[in-house]
What does this fold into?
Amino acid sequence: MRIVANYKHYKELNEEVVQAIKNGAAQLTLEDVNGQRFIADCLKGKLKIDIYGTPGNDLGMFMDGPTVTVFGNAQDGVGNTMSSGKIIIHGDGRDIVGHSMRGGKIFVRGDVGYRVGIHMKTYKSNVPIIVAGGRAGDFLGEYMAGGIIIILGMHNTAKKTEILGDWVATGQHGGAIYVRGEVDDSKLGNGAAQFPMTADDEMTVKKVLTEYCRVFGLGLDSVFETDFTKIAPVSHRPYAALYTCE
Amino acid sequence: MCSILGIVNASGKLFSASSIIEGITLMNERCNGLGGGFAAYGLYPEYKEYYALHILLKDFEQKDRVEEMLKEHVDIYKDEEIETRNVQGISQDYLPWRFFVDVPERYAHDADNYIIDLSMKINDTGNALVISSGKNMGVFKAIGYPDQVAKLYKLEKYEAYMWLAHGRYPTNTRGWWGGAHPFSILDCSIVHNGEITSYGTNRRFLELYGYKCSYFTDSEVLAYLWDLLVRRHKLPIDVASEVLAPPFWEQIERMPGEKRRIIEALRITYGPAMVNGPFGIVIANSTGLTGVAGNGTMVGLSDRIKLRPLVCAQKDDYTFMASEESAIKAVCKNPDIVWAPGAGKPTVATVTGDV
It folds into this structure.
C-alpha cells in the first residue's frame, strides 16, 4: 500500500497509516515524507514500512515489531524507547538515536549525532542494538545500562573528523560499545574503560555485522580489516559515591 | 522548542520571501503562536546609505514623540508606516514604523555606536522599541505563528539576499511583540532556539559596555554579545564562537600549547560572555567581519554540548541553516550537501557578491 505524505500534517498521515494497517495492509510505502513526526510510533507486529524522504522527529518511538526503512536521512530521536523491530536508515541519523531503547535494532549507514544510545537498556531477553557505519558525536552511550552499540567509522573518506566524539559512555553501567579501530582513553567519560575483545565479543560483533552488511550490501571482510575496541563500564554503580543515604 | 531558519545567497542575489516562509512554516510544531519574526537583508537598495530604523510604536501619539526625539539626534531622510494587513488571530498591539536616518556630521566618525546609543535611549522610554537599526535591512516581528506574521507584514512584497526566520515557543517569559525574534542591533540579527541560563551574568557584563536589555527575554543578550565581540572587539568568527561556546577545561588541557594559551586567555577575558544553557542560533551580519571577505555573513552555532539541533545544507550558491532538515528540504528538495555541524563549532556562509 502506498501513501503519499506530501505536505500532510503528521496527525493525518499517521492516522492513514493506522487505518491502512487496520484494513490489513502489512507493507506500506510512504512517499514524499518531509518532517512528519511520530511515524510508526507504537506500531506492533510484523509490518514493513518503507519511507522515502526525511521523516520527522521520534520516528519509531515505542515501536514493537515492525521493520522501518528510511531512504534518506532521519531527524532527531529515532527509535525512542522502542521495544522491538528494526529501523534501517540509508542516510545519516541525528541526535539521540535509540534514546532509552530497550530492544530491537537500529542500523544507520552513515553518521549519527550526539547522545546516541542514551539510557538504552537490556530488558529481560531483549538486547537493543545500534550500528552506525560512519562516526558518532559526543556522549555516545551516555548512562547506557545495557545493549550493544557498534560504530564503524567508515565512509569517512575526507578523514576530516574522528570516529568518536568526546565523553563516550559517560555514566555507563551496563552493555558494551564496540568501535572499529583504536580509541584514545581521553575520549572516554567517567565510568567506562577499554577492555580486551573476548571470543564472545568477537562472535557478537560478527553476528550483528553480518546482518548489517547484508542490509546495506557491504562486504563483511572489509569491515573486519581493522580490529575492534571494546568499551564497557568499570562499575555497575558509577555514581554510588554521590549518594550519602544508602 | 522554537524553530530557526536562515537562507543566504552567496552572490548577493535577491530572492522573495516565499522560501523562508515555507521553510519556517514546516516547523510550526516547534512553536505555539506566541511569536514569529523575520530579518531580511538587501531590503532598501535605494536608501542603503541610511540607517533603517524599524520601530514598534504604541500609537500615533507615541510616533510623534519618537519622531521629536529622533529629530534631536539624527536627520530623518524619510519615514513611513510599515505596511500591515489584518490577520485573523493577531492583535495589532503595535504600530510598526520605519525611519531612514542619517547621523549628523559631527558624530559621523562613530556613527554606528551613535545609532546604538540612540536605539537604546528610545527603548528606555518604554512603549517604543527599535527592533532593527542597520542599513539596507530590517526586522519584522509580532505575536503569531511565523506564517501569520509574514502575512501581517505583507512579506511577499520584499526581496532579500539573506533571510532569517523564527517561530517562538516562549518557556520562561511571556509572549509579546518585542519578545519575538530576531533580535537585532545595527546590521546584526539573531534567531535563537533554547534558553540562556547565564542571562543574568551576560546582562551585567553587557551593561559594563553600555548595552541595556529591554526585551524581558534571554535571547536578547546574544545579539549584543555578538556585536561586542565581532564588531567592537573585532574577534574573528571562530574566536567569538569559542567565547560563546567555549571548550571544557579538560578539553583545553589536551590542546597544543599555542592554542591552549589563546583559549585560556579568552576564558579569562570573556568568562561572563560565555553563554550557558542549550542553544541553537543563526546570526546574520551585512557587513564584512574580521577575517571574512565579502558583504555579509550568516553563522550557525550550537551550544558546546549540542543540546539543540542545527542542520545545514548547500545548493549552488545558497546556504541553509535550520532546526530540522525537513525545513530545508521543503524549499530545496535536492541539496548538494546536508550536514550537522559539531557542537560549539560555527558554520559560516559568506556573501561575496555585490549587494
